[in-house]
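User: tokens in, sequence out, please.
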């Protein structure tokens, strides 16, 4: 019930911000966008769909540091931290990308990469990862995260999410305009229009999430393959094998960071990561193609 009320409040806020933005655009630039026309609605959908995703991308590194309590290693305080920074930078050099910032956080055995661009990125690992794995396995995890940065996954996920958000907003309002009762002038009843729009957003967002998570799983396979190419198959393979033996609730990152971790769990259709057994098979396949005897 609370989530439904929050959705209504958010949609009212979105609609209010839309009309305020349209008013300011017309007032300042003299450009009038008609939200009742298909073209005008499409423009608004793109603005709404991408604005939140782009803002999240730009703030991603800062939000990760704050939400996860990441301590960025500027001056290593131990041999383990020195090794972590040097190994991450070595892998970045091998991948041909700018060296990311390196951080450490207290939490479940996991790691993630984030940041708005290849030249402004962060790789962070949990302290418990050092208790679970040897250095070769941690290096495999780092190689995986470095390949997320190399592949521009943070940016492509933002674009995918922006397109999906825009489509959900646009399609829900087109259908709502068709289904909502009309007055004598052909204008839809505003309350029915909003109610139908909200319901359709809920429904369409489920399908949009399935598409976004499919793409997320695809990029995990690519990051695993990239780790094999720059660091060999054994580190990432045995790291994932160990993580796969731990109960799910003991390795999960917070919701906002799950898509960027080394592992994630949920119903496969809505999971940001493929099942670990499938990832291990993919790693062996890539390794054999590269000439490793596995």
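Assistant: Sequence out:
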């Amino acid at each position: 019930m609370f989530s439904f009320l929050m959705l209504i409040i958010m949609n009212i806020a979105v609609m209010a911000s839309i009309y305020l933005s349209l008013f300011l655009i017309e007032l300042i630039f003299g450009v009038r966008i008609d939200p009742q026309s298909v073209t005008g609605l499409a423009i608004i959908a793109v603005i709404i769909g991408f604005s939140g995703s782009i803002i999240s991308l730009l703030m991603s590194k800062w939000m990760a540091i704050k939400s996860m309590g990441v301590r960025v290693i500027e001056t290593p305080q131990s041999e383990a931290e020195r090794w972590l920074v040097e190994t991450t930078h070595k892998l970045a050099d091998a991948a041909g990308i700018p060296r990311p910032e390196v951080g450490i956080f207290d939490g479940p055995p996991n790691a993630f990469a984030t940041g708005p661009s290849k030249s402004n990125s962060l790789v962070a690992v949990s302290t418990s990862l050092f208790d679970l794995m040897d250095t070769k396995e941690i290096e495999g995890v780092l190689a995986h995260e470095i390949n997320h940065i190399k592949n521009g996954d943070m940016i492509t996920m933002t674009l995918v999410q922006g397109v999906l958000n825009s489509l959900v907003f646009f399609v829900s309002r087109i259908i709502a305009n068709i289904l909502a009762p009309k007055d004598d002038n052909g204008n839809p009843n505003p309350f029915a229009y909003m109610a139908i729009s909200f319901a359709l957003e809920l429904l369409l967002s489920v399908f949009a999430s399935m598409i976004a998570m499919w793409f997320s799983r695809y990029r995990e396979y690519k990051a695993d393959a990239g780790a094999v190419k720059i660091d060999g198959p054994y580190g990432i393979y045995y790291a994932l094998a160990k993580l796969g033996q731990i109960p799910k609730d003991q390795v999960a990152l917070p919701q906002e960071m799950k898509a960027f971790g080394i592992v994630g769990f949920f119903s496969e259709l809505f999971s940001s990561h493929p099942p670990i057994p499938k990832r291990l098979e993919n790693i062996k396949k890539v390794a054999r193609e590269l000439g490793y005897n596995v």
